[in-house]
Amino acid sequence: MAGDDQAISPLAREGFVLFTGKAGCADCHSGWRFTDDTFHDVGLPAPEDTGRYRFSREPGDRFAFKTPGLRNLASRAPYMHNGSMNTLDAVIRHYNGNWLQRPTLSPLLRDPHLSEDDITALLSFLDSLNSDGGTQVPDTATHTPQGGKP
């Protein structure tokens, strides 16, 4: 944006205010990549999908998955770690208090009571995070590290 007041629409700016405030999105989706790079249980129904617990064996890690970055979302559907949501609208509605309650649920989740207008504004802001084509997020890594010591 670099000081350009017209870089995003007024509706997208309204969505940014919601994103960083009332909606609570920035509690986990922060920084230039819009991720805190940590793990959270966001209350998705997935009884066999135990998340980070599979590796850590820490009970608090059950159902916790790493927060994804939000750049170039338009080309990355389906959403959530398990691809269970086809649209960003569905994702926002999940975070509008429609998660499963369980002991490992992230304490950062709170029901923001978003209106339809709020959801529209958030979708507009998320759309503003898409590139016009210069920088794309690859679907898979183009190089893999080689094992062994240097």
UniProtKB/TrEMBL annotation:
GO molecular function: cytochrome-c peroxidase activity; electron transfer activity; heme binding; metal ion binding
Span of domain Cytochrome c: 10-130
Span list, region Disordered: 130-150
Coiled-coil portions: none
Keywords of this entry: Heme, Iron, Metal-binding
Transmembrane segments: none
Domain of life: Bacteria
Keyword Iron: yes
Annotated protein name in UniProt: C-type cytochrome
